[in-house]
Write a structure and sequence with these properties.
Elements lengths: L1 H29 L5 H30 L1
Helix pairs in contact: 1-2
């Protein structure tokens, strides 16, 4: 069913989000807040979080329509 596929996509999106958060957590743990890597990690994390959240909202809305 379509709903099952959407739920599967949601799980995959959540896994992707968790993987990125682990990556950023490591970035922030092993780099100083003054380092360029740390600052770029913060910037990229904000972008990734917005993109993933947007995709998850669209999937949810599509699932509710069906």
């Amino acid at each position: 069913m379509i709903v099952n596929r959407v739920e599967d996509y949601m799980v995959d999106a959540e896994r992707l989000k968790n993987d990125f958060h682990l990556l950023f957590s490591n970035c922030f743990t092993f780099n100083s807040p003054k380092d360029k890597v740390y600052k770029e990690g913060q910037r990229i994390k904000q972008i990734i979080d917005k993109k993933i959240e947007s995709k998850m909202e669209k999937l949810t809305l599509n699932a509710l329509k069906n």
